[in-house]
Design brief:
Structural class: alpha+beta
CATH topology of the largest domain: Thrombin, subunit H
Shape: elongated
CATH architecture of the largest domain: Beta Barrel
Mean pLDDT: 80
Distance between the termini: 47 Å
Largest sheet: 7 strands, antiparallel
Length: 518
């Protein structure tokens, strides 16, 4: 189990399961039922007007659902070997963050003197009578041995069929036939407010059910998986070890795969996240058929093009994606896509974010032509890109890792005085020369103006600009001297535009940064 980001925890897992139910009933009681009348909910302190009647179809019990589906839900125990150094790192689930105190995880030193063994547990569920099981990728990642425990107590060894890091899904298989299984519900999604039930292996207890409602759809966890997953938010308590377990609707159909919780402390606060059934179904089918998921790839790094950026260059409230880097020799480079191209659509599908563009490209097959509508120099044009195959996440990270590790400078680096420095937007700007390249380790292909100083109270600093950054363009027009930047700022002021759009290089890549001109 690892933290995805501050507050979000993989494997989801916390909490006191009765909290939500207890809170829901505070201050209320059921009035005695009368013949031919519906029960009424009244205030405890004052038996006044009816607040509301129980909605039609509200279950009196989830016992029938649990009895029907629980035989398909399994506990998964994993043994893996880990780098001993990782055992010294703080565990977000450990009391007070002490190293080595993890939940649902135990480490034992390998007697042979090799890497220590680690045991962890999670959940999963059977989706076929012949033993295919869906779980989370993070449950079985790096597993040496996988053991599945069925509801009837049988323990069976499982093998990995395939896994997908990008959606945090995996499929494993046990030998045998005639297993009880469940199915994904792809069409009739529960509404926000509808009942759901989560079943899994919290804290290694196995076969545990919790109930709640669908709280929201389309949640973004701001991690890598959210590129391809719009999460379902539920308030059915999901706890440590529930990762990979199913969330059911009231008909016993799988509507999601439990994957994460939101928590400031690691404990349950009633906010859990599940991978939607339609996404999980599509991914698991690919994993079963080929052992991996194949996605389209064009070889471009992108970011959101926001309305604030659009307003800086007179494009109103446009939302799109903007290209910030091109992989040399990749499909995009061969087709003529360029840095700072604003992508409006792919194969006729409107693009309003970098995530939307990544998903549309990912849907493409290797060799398929992707027709992109882009905005360049104020003119719309179409570019046909023949899709490649998306590399693994590790390969992608290796390909874009900067030569010098780390984030942009903090802005506190001492700067040498320069006779050619010009002040603009709260920054001291100088031409990019050989000395500047050496001092800030700027690659030879980067051209522009260097930030040599910056006011801490400036909007540029608040937006993340720092000493050592290189401004490569302003309002999508290349700059080579500080005077070019000053002229662009003055033009924006005269046009009455509150911001300008900077294209900025830092030790990590390129980014578009809107900055206020006043």
């Amino acid at each position: 189990m690892v933290a995805r980001k501050t507050g979000f925890f993989v494997g989801a897992v916390a909490g006191v399961g009765v909290a939500a139910a207890a809170i829901a009933g505070v201050g209320l009681r059921m009035a005695p039922a009368q013949a031919a009348e519906s029960p009424q909910l009244v205030r405890t302190a004052n038996a006044g007007p009816m607040i509301f009647a129980p909605p039609p179809g509200a279950p009196m019990s989830f016992a029938d659902i649990f009895e029907k589906v629980s035989p398909a839900v399994v506990s998964i125990d994993v043994t893996s070997r880990v780098d001993a150094r990782s055992l010294r790192l703080p565990n977000p689930f450990a009391p007070n963050g002490k190293p080595g105190e993890g939940e649902d995880e135990n480490q034992n030193q390998d007697e042979s003197g090799g890497r220590p063994r680690q045991q962890s547990s999670g959940s999963g569920f059977l989706i076929s009578a012949d033993g295919y099981i869906v779980t989370n990728n993070h449950v079985i990642e790096d597993a040496d041995e996988i053991t599945v425990t069925l509801k009837d107590g049988r323990e069976l060894k499982a093998r990995l069929v395939g896994r997908d890091e990008d959606t945090d899904l995996a499929v494993i298989k046990i030998q045998g036939t005639g297993f009880t299984f469940v199915t994904f519900e792809n069409a009739a999604k529960p509404r926000v407010g509808d009942w759901v039930i989560a079943v899994g292996n919290p804290f290694g207890l196995g076969g545990t059910a919790t109930a709640g409602i669908v709280s929201a759809y389309g949640r973004n966890l701001n991690d890598d998986s959210s590129t391809y997953v719009d999460y379902v938010q539920i308030d059915a308590p999901i706890n440590r070890g529930n990762s990979g377990g199913p969330t059911f609707d009231v008909y016993g159909r799988v509507i999601g795969v439990n994957s994460a919780i939101f928590s400031p402390t690691g404990g349950s606060v009633g906010i859990g996240f599940a991978i939607p059934a339609d996404t999980a179904d599509a991914i698991t089918r690919q994993l079963i058929s080929g052992g991996k998921v194949v996605r389209g790839f064009i070889g471009a790094q992108i970011q959101n093009f926001t309305p604030e950026m659009a307003q800086a260059i007179g494009l109103g409230d446009l939302k799109a994606a903007v290209v910030k880097a091109i992989t040399p020799g990749g499909p995009a480079a061969k087709a003529g896509l360029m840095v700072d191209d604003i992508v409006l659509s792919v194969n006729g599908v409107k693009v309003e974010s970098s995530t939307a563009l990544t998903r549309e490209v990912g849907r493409g097959l290797a060799g398929q032509v992707l027709r992109m509508e882009v905005l360049r120099d104020g003119q719309k044009r179409f570019i046909d890109i023949r899709s490649g195959v998306r590399p693994s996440r590790g390969e992608l990270e290796a390909s874009i890792r900067p030569d010098s590790e780390g984030s942009p400078p903090t802005g506190k680096t001492p700067s040498a005085p320069s006779a050619t420095r010009v002040q603009a937007l709260g920054m001291g700007l100088t031409p990019l020369d050989a000395a500047g390249r050496k001092r800030f380790s700027i690659p030879s292909e980067i051209q522009g103006v260097v930030v040599e100083s910056i006011r801490a109270d400036s909007d540029a600093a608040e937006r993340g600009m720092a000493i050592g950054n290189v401004i490569t363009s302003v309002n999508l027009k290349a700059v080579r001297t500080p005077a070019d930047v000053v002229a662009a700022v003055e033009a924006a002021r005269k046009a009455g535009r509150p911001t300008i759009l900077l294209s900025v290089w830092f030790k990590g890549g390129l980014a578009s940064v809107p900055v206020k001109v006043n």
